[in-house]
Amino acid sequence: MGAATAFGAAFATAFAAGAFFAGARFAPDADALVAGTFFDGAFFVAGSAAFFAGAAFAGAAFAGAAFAGAFFVAGFAAVFVEGADFARGVFRSAITIACLCVPRNLWHARAHPANGAQHRTPGARRKPRTPQNDASPMFLPTPRPLPLEGASLTVLGVESSCDETAASVVCVDAAGAWVRSDVVATQVAEHAPYGGVVPEIAARAHLRAVGPVIERAVRDGGGWGAIDAVAATAGPGLIGALLVGLQAAKAVAWARGLPFVGVNHLAGHLLAPFTRVEGEAFTAPAFPFVGLLASGGHTAIYRCDDASTMRELGATRDDAAGEAFDKVAKMLGLGYPGGPVVDRLAARGDADAVTFPQALRGRSVEFSFSGLKTAVATHLGKHGPPATEQALCDLCAGVQRAIVETLVRKLLLAARLEGVPRVVLGGGVAANRGLRAHAAAECARAGVTLVVPPLRACTDNAAMIAYAGAVALRAGRLDGLDLDARASWPVG
């Protein structure tokens, strides 16, 4: 393994280890050979040797910091906290990410003294390294420039905010944002036994999937040579899940010398209708528009004046709409994820048979769904579980009507208050057939233009992240490798 490749592998390993042990500090003089032999045999020892080859090339200071962050954390800590199998998974995923990069330009600055790096003569004392770019202090070398304004921009997007590991390559040109590849690895099977997303399980599943998902997305999207920049979800979401995708994307950007930007997951959903696939029916919304974002973790209404200017108009005070669907489904024993099951059963039910309250019916564009969950629990406590399939369908229809009518009523109220005749649905709940049908009927009645993205763009995906990243990059944003994941990150 060449010195540059070894250095890239070590750095990527440090990033991936940080995804689970963010900021942990361990003794820098830990014995790599002992750790390697004890935890993963020859494979881990080979990785340790590769690291030291890179460290010799990069300097002893890097050796201490990177070794402590990568091998000792991913090895010793993972074994004693999570078990040997998990430790091996951390290390192998990190090496996979590093190998994906096949670093070619890692030492651009070293090869070109004009960029700030100089060759050392044998015995010469190393000069302190200074940042190449104040805005991106951890970029070494400085990332290559973006294509000129007006030229196409191809972005690799990475998404891991909840329970789906996704990567996508999107080419943005004058005709639109073309999805060249869109790969999603779902975790439904891992979380189904628990009736909901378990953050620790989600993070580990992301770590196993992120390397292969990125590799396939890049291969299907035209190869590494086609990629101009990297974007990743930096928040909001589950912090452990976010860290995996974010750190992997940063490792790829660093190793290939590509510009990097962190993306707000909610902004990505609002921009999802702009992504298009060859041969797919497509209607892009015109600005300004009012967007409803409804998912398992978020429910809010936004005014979008352009692709970079968004403002929250109202949000849920407690539970998200998708969470309400899933919690009701759990009460009824319908499994996880429950939203699609409730939607399917509601289509065969009578919504008038069982009615449920709709909160905040005044001129507020805020939401509340906790009372609905309480009402369903009270109904089940009083009447017991539905005795027949039709009774179950009727109950699901009543629940769906309460959620759907609330969402559409407040979306149209916000559009009227803002004086905007265009609305957009987004988020996983936008895949609900009842919501799509009711929104279409009410918007037609009100003379409001409705844009609903295709089903592939409603649920979590990386194409929306790649496009949102392209918008941010064209606006002049560039993030450094010290960008942190954010569990909470308001839009605007």
Short description:
The protein is α/β, with parallel strands linked by helices and 492 residues long. The chain has 16 helices and eleven strands.
Protein described:
The protein has 492 residues and is an alpha/beta fold. The chain has three domains: 3-104, no CATH class; 153-272 and 463-474, Nucleotidyltransferase, domain 5 (2-Layer Sandwich); 286-453, Nucleotidyltransferase, domain 5, CATH 3.30.420.40. The chain has 16 helices and eleven strands. It has a six-stranded mixed β-sheet with strand order 5-4-1-2-3-6, with helices on both faces. Helix 1 (3-20) packs across helix 2 (32-58), helix 1 (3-20) crosses helix 3 and helix 10 packs antiparallel against helix 13. Residues 3-8, 14-89 and 95-137 have low confidence and may be disordered.
Key structural traits:
492 residues, five-stranded mixed beta sheet, alpha/beta, 48% helix, 11 strands, 3 domains, Nucleotidyltransferase, domain 5, single chain
